[in-house]
Each structure stands twice: as structure tokens, then as C-alpha cells.
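C-alpha cells incoming
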């Protein structure tokens, strides 16, 4: 498993990927091409989170339980979870389509979280330190 650095300051924000791709980084690149305003908002949220931790404001961050949360704007969600210290792991990102976080997105987050902790326990994590 490869963790791609999204942003690092007081808190490190990394996204799950592999040797050649990262779903969160790819999502952000596409968003920057399709909707620059939403891209700017989620980038600001990421920057703020890297300096201060997840916001305690439901308009900016939604707690999903069990150490899971989502950074959010009006349309964008980035599904994340905590690891030790000040490490935030991003599972994936998606566009909001309804009021609640869809169950499939929660299942995808839980699956990624399980895979992450298994890889961590086996010493199978490599960090890609170039910010994306």
C-alpha cells in the first residue's frame, strides 16, 4: 500500500493509493478542471485541517463514528479516518448526491480502513512524500 501525501503541517494528511495512482489525488485533479470554485473550497478545507486538525463545524466536517469523518464542502466529501498521533488517512472522495452519506461510501471507507491497518501491521506501507 502506498500513502500519497496530500498536505502536511501540524497534521499529516495522506491518501490511500498504489504505486501509480491515488483516487483522492485523481479526484482533486478532475475537480480542479471541472469546478474550480469547489476545488478551491476543498483545498482550503484540507489546508485548514493540516494546520488545525478536523474542523469542529458540521458545515466543514462530519463525524461518522469510530474515528471516521468526512471533510466537506457543499458538494464534495473526502472520507477519512484517524491513525496514531496527528495522522489523517483519506480513503476516497466523492460528490454529494443526497442528505446522508450513502452506505456504499461508508462501506468503502471501512474496507479501506481495514486494509490500511492490516498493511500497517504487516509493515507494508510506503509513503509518497511529494504533495499532490
Amino acid at each position: 500500500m502506498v500513502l500519497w501525501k496530500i498536505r502536511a503541517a501540524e497534521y499529516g494528511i495522506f491518501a490511500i493509493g498504489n504505486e501509480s495512482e491515488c483516487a483522492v489525488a485523481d479526484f482533486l485533479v478532475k475537480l480542479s478542471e471541472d469546478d474550480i470554485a469547489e476545488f478551491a473550497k476543498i483545498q482550503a478545507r484540507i489546508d485548514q485541517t493540516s494546520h488545525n486538525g478536523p474542523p469542529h463545524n458540521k458545515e466543514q466536517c462530519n463525524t461518522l463514528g469510530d474515528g471516521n469523518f468526512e471533510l466537506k464542502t457543499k458538494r464534495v466529501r473526502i472520507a477519512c479516518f484517524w491513525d496514531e498521533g496527528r495522522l489523517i488517512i483519506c480513503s476516497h472522495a466523492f460528490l454529494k448526491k443526497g442528505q446522508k452519506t450513502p452506505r456504499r461510501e461508508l462501506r468503502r471507507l471501512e474496507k479501506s480502513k481495514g486494509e490500511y491497518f492490516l498493511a500497517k501491521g504487516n509493515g507494508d506501507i510506503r509513503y509518497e512524500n511529494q504533495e499532490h
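note: The helical segments are 23-34, 36-52, 103-121.
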